Each structure stands twice: as C-alpha cells, then as structure tokens.
Amino acid sequence: MRRIMADQKIIDFKERTGGTGNWRNYTKLGMFLILLIAVLVFIFTNVFIVKQGEYKVIRQFGEVVRIIEEPGLSYKFPFVQSVTTLPKYQMTYDVSQAEINTMDKKRILIDNYAIWRIEDPKKMISNARTVQGAESKMEEFIYSVVRSELGRLNYDEIINDENSSRGSLNDRVTKRVNELLTGDNYGIMVTDVRMKRTDLPEENEQSVFTRMISERQSKAQEYLSMGDAEKNRIIAQTDREVKEILAKASADAETIRGEGEGEAAKVYNQTFSKDPEFYSMFRTLESYKKTINGETVIVLPSDSPYARLLMGYTN
After folding, report:
1. What pLDDT score was predicted for residue 7?
2. Within 13 A of 16's CA, how many CA atoms are on the CB side?
3. How confident is the model at residue 196 (pLDDT cuts 50, 70, 90)?
C-alpha cells in the first residue's frame, strides 16, 4: 500500500514543462529582440536630421571634421564623433548700453542692436568658439566703431531728427564692423547696426536741460532783437518815403497853385481892364474885409477916397 502511494508521488518534469525545445525557442526570441533594440538604439543615436536654417557640426575628439549645411538625413560615427547645432538664420543681438563723448564734449548714452548671421561655422568655432563668444567680439567692435563715429558729430546732429546723420552713420558702422570681423576671420557677418535710443547720463540731465533752456532763451532774444531792428528799419524807410511823397506833392501843389494864381491874375486883368472904376471899388471892398472887423477904429479925413464908400458915397 505504501509503495503504491510512493509511486503516485513521482513527478515527470519533462511532461510538465513540455520539453527543453520550448525553452530554447524563448531564449532565441529574447536574444533577437535584445539585438533588434540595440540596433535601433545604435541607429537612432548616430543618425540625425539636418533642419532648414541650421548647421550641423560634426566633431571627432573635439576637432571639427565635417559641417553639414543642406537639410536632410545624415549620420555620425558612434562613440568617437559628436554633433552640435549652430543657427543658420539671421539673429538679433541687443548691444549693451554704452557711454560716449560727442565732438562738442557732451556725454551721452547709446543703445544699439545688431542683426547678424554665421557665414563660416568653421572659422567662427575656430576663433570665437561659441555663439556667445562671437556676440561678445561683435559687441566690442560695434562699441569701438560707434564711439569713433559719434565722436566726430555734435550732440545736436545726433538727436535732431531733421538734421540727423543716423542713416549714413548706421551704414558706416555696419561696413566698418564687417571689415574688422572679416580681418580677424570670425566667420560671421553683421547685416545691420541700428541706434535704438540716445539719452543723457542721469548726473548730467539737469545741467544740460538748464543750458538748453538758456540757449533757447538767448536765441529767442536774438530773434526779438533782429525783429525790432527790422521793424525800425521798415518804419524809418516808410517815414522817409512818406516825407518824399509829401514834399513832392507839396511842390506839385505849389506849382499848380502858382499856375492857377497866374491864370487868375490874367483873367482879373482882362476883366477889370474893361471897367477900371469897378475894379478900384472891388479892390477897396476887398481891403475892408482884411482891415475892418467888429472892433476896428479908423480915423480918416472925411474927404478921403478910402472913406467914401464907408460914408455911403459912391460917386
């Protein structure tokens, strides 16, 4: 009885596991999956995409061995090569605010910005190392050139919009900065340099404003003096012309009056010569108008010819 129960407890592992063939299949499948994953990881870590608007820089042990500019799919050798990206598009850099002196010895604060791009990535990496290094070197050149150019201009020429020289100044600064960058082989190009803002240092603002007010007042007084002088000149000229006109008119009037009196005398002579007695009486009556008024006292002999008409005698 015990032997029978012992026989029943014997387990056949081959039957329960289905044999050693299945284990081998599972092992092969696992190894294949691991190998597939390793291959995919290898591919994805060494194949990369070059996008529009960027450079891909391939380095081998730190040295640049290849630069890819065209967009598409590319690769690198594993373990010994690495990939970095540089921008190919134009970038804007805000230049730090700087203080300069103008030709008329005025201190101003200048705030510029620059638009630039990488032309030769290999030269840029060789001389500037990084984008930040290129921007730092570009800023040094911009500050140097702007300080030199603005030092040749007066303050009013910089801030006055009507007489501003900023347009040609920006072009000159851009050209000169590119010459310096090209000369040192930095592999970058500045497209444009623009002046955003000009301002006065805080400690100088009040004194400059006071001086500007004084200058404007002085200029206004100068204009007023010029206006007064012009007014006096016009008045004097007008008075002179009026006097000349009045003198000429008076002379013409005297001439006309003399001609009229001569003509009148001629007419009188022609008229009175026809009746001398009437002319004598008329002359006497005219003299009475001039010599006799309400308070006139005349002492004349009664037989005086001058008194005859006063006495009522007409013959």
Report:
1. 47
2. 4
3. confident
Tell me the sheet residues that pair with 195. 112
User: Model confidence over 57-93: pLDDT tens digits?
Assistant: 999 988 889 999 888 888 888 888 889 999 999 999 9
The residues that bridge with 93 in the sheet, in sequence order, are 114
Q: What are the tokens at 131? A: 């984008």
Segment (H or E) for 198: strand 188-199
Per-position DSSP letters for 41-89, written without gaps between them = HHHHHHEEEEPTTEEEEEEETTEEEEEE-S-EEEE--TTTEEEEEEE-S
CB 280, CB 287: distance < 8 Å = no
| Average predicted confidence (pLDDT) for the chain | 81
Amino acid at position 166, single letter: R
Q: Read out DSSP for 89-111? A: S-EEEEPPPEEEE-TTS-EEEEE
Nearest to 205 by CA among 119, 106, 302, 129: 106
Collect all residues with Cβ–Cβ distance below 8 Å to 145 and sequence separation of at least 6: 172, 173, 176, 177, 180
Name all domains of the chain by residue range, CATH numbers in brackets.
13-86 (no CATH), 91-199 (3.30.479.30), 275-311 (no CATH)
